[in-house]
Amino acid sequence: MTFAEIEFNSDLYAATLKLRDEVLRAPLGLRFSGEDLAGEERELHFGMVDDGALVACLVIKPLGDTRAKLRQMAVADTHRGKGLGRQLVCNTEEVLRAKGFTAIELSARETAIGFYKKLGYAETGAPFEEVGIAHRTMVKQIARPKTA
Ligand SMILES: CC(C)(COP(=O)(O)OP(=O)(O)OC[C@H]1O[C@@H](n2cnc3c(N)ncnc32)[C@H](O)[C@@H]1OP(=O)(O)O)[C@@H](O)C(=O)NCCC(=O)NCCS
Question: For residue 85, how far is its CA from the centre of ligand 1 (angstroms)?
Answer without folding.
Answer: 6
